[in-house]
Amino acid sequence: MYFKDIHPYVGLRCNEVDKGASPTYFCDMHAAWDSLPEDLKQNVRDEGEVDFTLANFFKRARYPYDVQKPAELRYLRMTRKCKNTICKEDGKGEYAYFSPAYTSSKYYNELNQLLFEDKFVYAHEWKDNDLVVWNNKTISHMRKGTPRHIVRNLVRYAFHEPKQSEDYLTHLPIKYNRDVILNEIKELTFKPFEVKRAPKGNFFRYAKSWLRSEITTIRDDGEIGNVVTQVKSLLDLKDDDFTLNVFNQKANTSVPEHKDISPCAMIIILSNNAAPITFVGHGDMNYKCALLNTQAPHTIKSYIEDRITLKFSIKKDYKSCLESLKLK
Length: 328
Fold this sequence. Notes:
The chain is of the alpha+beta class.
């Protein structure tokens, strides 16, 4: 909730659970809001936008947030925050958009006491293979602590609105032979990605686990040349509108949050399997060949295999490329 736009729907799947693990508690924020005294509801409406911050979580959390470095803690405090209204409305009426962990309000104590009464809460006791999906905006959820020796293995899924997803990534109908491209790049020399002006100690100053090789010569009769021709036609690009590189993110390593230097990118995943791209405030997105808004902050998670990609770093912005694509 410390981002302005959150996933509209979320799911949890239980892989394995032991007796004694905490249930997940779901609170109906429509019913809870309706129960509030009218003067409190009006006060909250009049208050307007308030702060939703991860800094509040650090102060209020009942269990520690695993931040290893002071610099990371400062960064999270500075970036994981937004302003939003507590009183919201959808097709079913008004509801409370409120989190005991993140929300700031003059009426915090009253809201925290009244919104989460037992009569509005459903406690789901997990069993192996359970799947629960809910409206992430109108249903608040929490869990209690589970002792470390008790298994509670759940996987979280976040569901995007299709229109919202297009703001980050658009799949492209490029035709290519992945195996031929891999054969064409096997003689390339890779070096760690580096940004010399990055602060000392920063991942991008000298990324030993994220390797790059620039392609400066493109054979017209090769498979990479075939891809270049298609990309230039689809996105209305000229030769000087992009640079072409191959990246190799080594197995069991991650790439931290960043924005690219170029406004957008077209990327083909050349590995058999690879981690998704994770857009901050939006979530994981899987693709094989896509146009990406690389000015949206994003990360790449760790995976058990090398993540090899063919990347067009494009000097045109994402919106302009998307408009060119829609005219085709």
